[in-house]
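Late entry, evening session. Most of the bench is empty. Finally got around to the prediction I had been postponing all week. Sequence below, unchanged from the version circulated by S.P.
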Amino acid sequence: MQSRVRQWAQTVKRDTVCLYLAARDPRTPWYAKALAASVVAYALSPIDLIPDFIPIIGFFDDILLVPLGLWIAMRMVPDDVIEDCRVQATQLTERPTSKTAALVILAIWMGAAAAIGWVIYEAIAS
């Protein structure tokens, strides 16, 4: 069981990098590039939308959302592009990261915190 989970995790990592490469490939349609870039940016972001320290739902994005997004986006990319990018992904030694996605997620959290603070302030003030 543990080896299957480890193999699945390796496949998800490889496919994330594969989709990263496919989003940059000129043979990929624009709509597939847009979805692929969004999924990859989220998957490679060092900050999660749902932090891992939150019990149960913290790992929800890692276990369900990222693989689901990868699956959908990879269905939109032509098969020959996926095959080429998988070969390239297995040869890469360093995993890319997305600092832009980290900033977007950080902005979402800051906006949510500001909105909650405003609601609390309004409740106390009235």
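Two things to note before I forget:
The chain has one domain: 2-125.
The chain has a mean pLDDT of 83.
Will write this up properly tomorrow.
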